[in-house]
Amino acid sequence: MNPPDERAQERVKGILKAELARRDITYKDLAARLGAMGIKDNAPNLANKISRGTFTAAFFVQCLDAIECRVLRLREDD
After folding, report:
1. pTM for this structure?
2. What is the three-state SS of 11-69?
3. Are 10 and 53 in contact (CB under 8 A)?
4. Alpha-carbon distance 72 to 44, whole Å?
């Protein structure tokens, strides 16, 4: 198995943080939204998980669903 790609981890972490910031959603808000979807987690744990950037693709998609992100911008146009 290949080791995690640190650049990719930084990228998805940055994307998720940017989407949360765009919507003015805190980790506490995210925890509540995920909880409403049946995904139990708390704000400090979410902050740590997102800060590390070592979360699964499934978690990434769950977060995007929770914050109602329907269109994802992978990079800013120059």
Report:
1. 0.87
2. HHHHHHHHHHHHCCCCHHHHHHHHHHCCCCCCHHHHHHHHHHCCCCHHHHHHHHHHCCC
3. yes
4. 25
* Sign of the torsion formed by the C-alpha atoms of 44, 41, 25 and 32: negative
Cα–Cα distance measured from residue 78 to residue 61, given in angstroms and rounded to the nearest whole number: 26
Q: What is the dihedral of CA 7, 12, 18, 21, to 10 degrees?
A: -130
Tokens representing 5? 């790609």
pLDDT in tens, 17-30: 999 999 999 999 99
């800060």: which residue's tokens? 51
Residues 50 and 11 sit within 8 Å (Cβ to Cβ): no
Taking only the tens place, the pLDDT of each residue in 1-16 is 777 788 989 999 999 9
